[in-house]
Design brief:
The complex is a heterodimer of chains A (237) and B (593). Chain A has helices at 20-26, 76-92, 107-114, 150-158, 219-222, 225-231, and strands at residues 3-7, 10-14, 50-53, 56-59, 70-72, 131-132, 138-141, 164-167, 174-177, 204-206. Chain A is α+β, with helices and mostly antiparallel strands. Chain A has a 5-stranded mixed beta sheet with strand order 2-1-5-3-4, with helices on one face. A 3-stranded antiparallel beta sheet of chain A has the order 6-7-10, with no helix packed on it. In chain A, strand 3 and strand 4 (56-59) form a beta hairpin. Chain B has 24 helices and 15 strands. In chain B, the strands form 3 sheets. A 6-stranded mixed beta sheet of chain B has the order 6-12-11-15-13-14. In chain B, strand 13 and strand 14 form a beta hairpin. Classes of the chains: A alpha+beta (237), B alpha/beta (593). Chain A binds chain B through residues 42-48, 50, 57, 59, 62-64, 81, 84-85, 88-89, 91-92, 122-125, 146-147, 162, 164-173, 176-178, 180, and chain B through 39, 48-51, 53-54, 57-58, 323, 340, 345, 347, 482-491, 493-498, 501, 521-522, 525, 528-531, 565-566.
Chain lengths: 237, 593
């Protein structure tokens, strides 16, 4: 099954087995997303890539492309909803961009720039979240976790381990570590693992590498996420 | 502990998908899931410990810290509240010297709220170590407190404390039918399997669990899948607040439900059935097991059913553990596989890729019962009742402000006004049709009808009279969704909690006109962007009460252009705690006038 579909009027070819977001990216069309990353099994939880497919709402990262589909990805209402969902992620955790090492390389921030997010809009939850600095090479700052599940999938699918999982329910979700103490140092993660590098925000950081690229010279300081996401095949979602 | 765990793992055949049942057993034995148990289970079942922690944290009836030896949960549905529940839980806390949400220091007793326990016709209700207590009042609480302080084992408590009453006030198409075990199966075999499926098709039966998908299409699609084995699942997880009709059906009509499942199995080609029974209905478990056993003895389950060579089918009952979301079919399947109940991404649909990734039919209790009678009477018999789009009858669980709460069966198309008359409701302010995920209607809309095309209900029907406060209703339901959101997708996880905050702000009198606009906008973001039906309907209580009584919301607003986005006084909580002060001088009014 291959053929073409249209996204916002633009005709786009797709290959067998591709999802809408994959077909779009191959054709250079950006659909905002945070929990999706090429080469990883789709998750469909951030809902930023919600599009209309033949009039029905679907996540572009999970919905299979099919011949003749009419996809609407960008209109005022949808961009507004995406902005609100991004703002929800900002108020749910504790995101202080000016003091975050990931600033400039952070996809959450990149998406926020893309959507012209100028404030948090919603009241903050001020969630009590902790840091796990136990591992010699890897730092976890739970304040910045958006539950995209990418580290969970990376560890399972790429590293052949099972270091991360998401526990809890509703607003009490939390990222947990598979080790007897619950601490990262006692898990079998290593700094070479995909799971240590996949985080779209600054929740999982590599120690001893901070600020090697100065703020102001980082990815989204110079290139919009819409361009980066389509240009960089492997390194970036 | 090791011996105990070895036994329960052996009983579960060391199959990780039976994890929920194993954890229920651990919880019952140790009053929580101890770290040691997690380590042993993870090791022996060869699953990551994080899966066990994730499951333990997901379900309300599992805990990582010890609960009291007498664990009391009080149903926090709006109808319980209307029956003085708040007052009673405070009294219970007082006599048992324990705070709501806490475990007493001697670990004898713990007390907390829980979502609707399915006893709204006999509330205020609750659960003690999983056993239902109904019609709570102060004398009953005194009696319970004495039994607990004397540390009398639950098994020795007076039986009348645990009585559950099934009151059927109106029987219709289904409940009036005579029944003989095996008749539906015999009729199916005589007519032929494809022919019986045609009858289900002709009946135009739609699923009774809420979504209203046409049953025959589901069964046909499943039967056409190449993959085997195929599964028949009975969704007995009726968690919608105000619903209890499946409780009654399983209590009094279980044979007809099981027979419906069996004929579904014959049609789709399945040899295994599962009943997912909500944890709140544990009291039905033994009874249902004996019904199943009896059916095996009668040759209605097991091998070569009714002498039909090669038709083998059996049914297993699996318990839930306190999660409303598991009423959603794909979340239920995840739960049956020993995981947190998070709805799956579709496609693929469960009919093609369900339990154990195999073709699966998931239908509601009432749906199976209806198919048993359709198999006997034929599709036309059923299709002749109701409306063109909503054929047959519907069981309603009626609760709230009416003289005769209980079960009522109506043909689809019945006016709400007539239902209210039957159950003895007057001075009606509004009706919640279909529970919190359904629709609130005002007393100006009582000529609307019960039907998928107008007011759809999976069974919940709550009546509110003129003395009730609209905001108590909207707030209880909105809090419910925030509590029950699985947290998988961002718009529902964060959005339901934001809805809760924003509604409370307005109800507490701190809202401005802009806040009401903000609330409506937020409702739409959550409704249109969520992953599943829970998120899609989480804003319904606000949207439908706002549509019915906008003036009440407007009256609640402060006529100021601006109001702070956060609660000034609440921000001082930490300071108060650190200063160990809670006197009036340590509080701020929201806005100084």
């Amino acid at each position: 099954m291959s053929g073409t579909l249209t996204i916002d009027g633009q005709i786009i070819p797709f290959n067998d087995g591709q999802t809408i977001i994959e077909a779009a990216r191959t054709a250079g069309v950006y659909i905002p997303h945070l929990c999706h990353r090429p080469g990883y099994s789709p998750h469909g939880s951030c809902k930023l890539c919600t599009v209309f497919v033949n009039g029905r709402q679907c996540s572009a990262c999970t919905f299979p492309a099919a011949d003749g589909q009419t996809v609407i990805s960008t209109n005022e209402e949808m961009q507004h909803d995406r902005l609100r969902i991004t703002q929800m992620l900002f108020v749910e955790g504790n995101h202080f961009c000016p003091s975050c090492e990931k600033s400039g390389n952070c996809q959450l921030q990149g998406v926020a720039y893309h959507l012209n997010m100028l404030d948090n809009h919603f009241p903050h939850f001020y969630a009590q979240r902790e840091m796990d600095a136990s591992h010699p090479d890897i730092l976890i700052d739970h304040n910045r976790c958006i539950f995209c599940n990418l580290c969970v999938r990376a560890s399972r699918e790429k590293d052949g381990k099972d270091v991360f999982a998401i526990a809890g329910r509703g607003i009490n979700k939390r990222l947990i570590i598979n080790s007897p103490s619950g601490k990262l140092k006692d898990s079998d993660i290593s700094v070479e693992d995909c799971a240590a590098h996949v985080c779209p925000t600054g929740a999982i950081l590599i120690k001893h590498t901070g600020y090697q690229v100065p703020i102001g010279e980082r990815i989204y300081d110079h290139h919009p996420i819409s361009q980066v996401a389509c240009d960089t095949e492997a390194d970036h979602g | 502990m090791k011996t105990f765990l070895d036994r329960i793992m052996a009983e579960a055949d060391y199959q990780p998908f039976r994890l929920l049942g194993m954890l229920r057993a651990v919880q019952a034995e140790y009053r929580h899931i101890p770290t040691e148990a997690i380590e042993i289970l993870a090791d022996r079942l060869n699953i990551p410990r994080t899966q066990i922690i994730a499951v333990a944290e997901f379900y309300s009836f599992l805990h990582l810290t010890p609960q009291g030896r007498y664990d009391i949960l009080i149903s926090d549905s709006i109808t319980d509240r209307m029956l003085n529940k708040e007052n009673l839980i405070n009294y219970l806390a007082h006599v048992l010297r324990v705070k709501v949400g806490e475990v007493r220091s001697d670990q004898l007793v713990s007390l907390n709220n829980t979502s609707c326990t399915g006893m709204c016709d006999q509330g205020p209700a609750g659960l003690i170590n999983g056993r239902p207590i109904t019609r709570l009042d102060r004398p009953k609480i005194d009696q319970i407190a004495t039994l607990i302080e004397q540390q009398i084992p639950l098994a020795d408590w007076p039986e009348e404390l645990f009585q559950v009453e099934e009151k059927i006030h109106k029987r219709g198409l289904l409940l009036n039918q005579p029944w003989q075990n095996g008749d539906a199966l015999k009729a199916t075999f005589v007519r032929g399997l494809p022919e019986t499926l045609t009858e289900v098709d002709v009946s135009n039966l739609r699923g009774r669990g809420g979504a209203g998908f046409k049953t025959a299409i589901k069964w046909r699609t499943c039967s056409q899948q190449a993959a085997t084995p195929r599964y028949v699942i009975c969704n007995a997880d009726e968690g919608e607040p105000g619903t209890f009709k499946d409780r009654m059906l399983l209590d009094l009509y279980a044979d007809q439900v099981f027979e419906g499942m069996t004929l579904c199995a014959a049609i789709i080609g399945s040899d295994q059935g599962l009943v997912y029974l909500r944890a709140e209905y544990l009291f039905l478990y033994d009874k249902l097991q004996s019904v199943l056993q009896q059916r095996r003895e009668l040759g209605l389950l097991g091998s070569n059913i009714l002498g039909r060579e090669g038709f083998n089918f059996d049914i297993e009952i699996r318990m839930g553990a306190g999660a409303y979301i598991c009423g959603e079919a794909s979340a239920q399947i995840e739960s049956l596989e020993g995981k947190p109940g998070i709805p799956r991404t579709k496609p693929p649909n469960s009919v093609m890729c369900g339990y154990q990734r195999k073709p699966t039919v998931v239908d509601n209790v009432e749906t199976y019962l209806a198919t048993a009678h359709i198999a006997i009477q034929g599709g036309q018999w059923f299709a002749g009742v109701g409306t063109a789009q909503s054929t047959g009858s519907k069981l309603l669980s009626i609760s709230g402000d009416c003289a005769r709460p209980g079960i009522y069966e109506y043909p689809f198309g019945t006016r709400i006004r007539d239902i209210l008359l039957d159950c003895g409701a007057d001075e009606v302010m509004g009706v919640q049709v279909g529970g919190p995920s359904g629709t609130f209607i005002s007393n100006r809309e009582l000529d609307r009808v019960l039907a998928f095309e107008d007011l759809s209900s999976a069974g919940s029907f709550m009546v509110f009279n003129n003395t009730r406060n609209l905001f108590d209703i909207a707030q209880n339901f909105t809090d419910f969704f925030a509590h029950e959101s699985c947290g998988f997708c961002a718009p529902c996880r964060v959005g339901t909690s934001l809805l809760k905050q924003q509604l409370h702000k307005i109800i507490d009198g701190h809202g401005s006109a802009a806040d009401l606009e903000e609330l409506s906008e937020l409702c739409l973001v959550v409704k249109t962007n969520s992953h599943c039906g829970l998120g899609e309907s989480a804003a319904n209580p606000i949207l439908t009460t706002l549509a019915s009584y906008p003036d009440q919301y407007l009256k609640q607003l402060k006529h100021k252009e601006f109001s702070p986005g956060f609660n000034l006084d609440a921000t001082l909580n930490v300071a108060r705690r650190m200063a160990e002060r809670d006197d009036p001088g340590a509080h701020l009014t929201q806005v100084e006038n």
